[in-house]
Design goal:
The protein is mainly β. The chain is about 5% helix and about 70% strand. The chain has a single domain, classed as Porin (Beta Barrel). An eight-stranded antiparallel beta barrel has the order 1-2-3-5-6-10-11-12. The chain has a two-stranded antiparallel ribbon with strand order 8-9. It starts with a helix and ends with a strand.
């Protein structure tokens, strides 16, 4: 994956040298989730999490219709989940049923490098409708999983780093912590997939864009479940 990332950067640099290049900035809102390897997965359902994406882009024109567009973005992706289950635990006179509710928020932070083949269609005046598709390379730089739950009348919270080995520690209502005694990693840092977008450019400067990122690489470090990123982004940009 590192080799692919370096080759992509080298390819983009060669474009900037050989072509007429325009630069710009963009920012927007992400709506992301995880796709599990099974219908239920370890967590029964992953729900959409709203986040942020921002960065810069460069567009190298091939002709009046086709161009290559690359982007370097900071992206907050992730997912939310809620589990409500009844767990049997040993009691004074046998097993007792304890209702457990657990809310989890996964917030991985990525540096994204998508590379698009872009096709532009002239619209009204100097406006332009464009579509693009291409590979996406991502590297996880941080983020945490945050847990909030309850068992009977007792509440607890916890959080863990996502991309590096960390130990889960539960905190109770009184501020006490209870370490699990075991460290593990939740997510793999590298991700790769396919990205595509539809955009409308006003007066060759201001752009509104709808983008979708479809992860193809298993990002889960847990051998019992595979996970793939899914992310929809609505953004606005300005080309200089």
């Amino acid at each position: 994956m590192k080799k692919q990332f370096i080759l992509a950067v080298a390819f983009l640099y060669s474009l900037t040298v050989a072509s007429q290049v325009n630069f710009g900035v963009k920012a927007g809102t992400t709506l992301s989730t995880f796709k599990s390897s099974t219908d239920n997965g370890i967590i029964p359902e992953y729900n959409t999490l709203a986040g942020f994406q921002g960065g810069a882009f460069a567009e190298a024109a091939i002709n009046s219709y086709f161009s290559f567009q690359s982007e370097l973005l900071f992206t907050m992706r992730g997912a939310k989940s809620t589990i409500i289950q009844t767990v049997s635990i040993p009691g004074p006179s046998g097993f007792i049923a304890v209702p457990v509710k657990l809310k989890t928020t996964f917030v991985p932070l990525y540096i994204d490098l998508p590379v698009y083949l872009k096709v532009g269609f002239p619209s009204a005046g100097s406006d332009r409708l464009s579509i693009g598709v291409g590979p996406l390379f991502s590297y996880g730089i941080g983020g945490k999983a945050k847990f909030k739950g309850s068992a009977n009348s007792e509440n607890f919270t916890a959080e863990m780093k996502l991309f590096s080995e960390d130990e889960l520690e539960l905190g109770d209502n009184n501020g006490n912590t209870n370490p699990s005694g075991e460290s593990f990693t939740l997510l793999k840092r590298f991700d790769a997939g396919i990205a595509g977008f539809v955009s409308y450019e006003f007066n060759n400067h201001i752009t509104l864009c709808l983008n979708y990122q479809y992860g193809l690489k298993n990002i889960s470090a847990d051998p019992e479940e595979d996970l793939w990123n899914r992310c929809l982004t609505i953004s606005a940009g300005y080309k200089f």
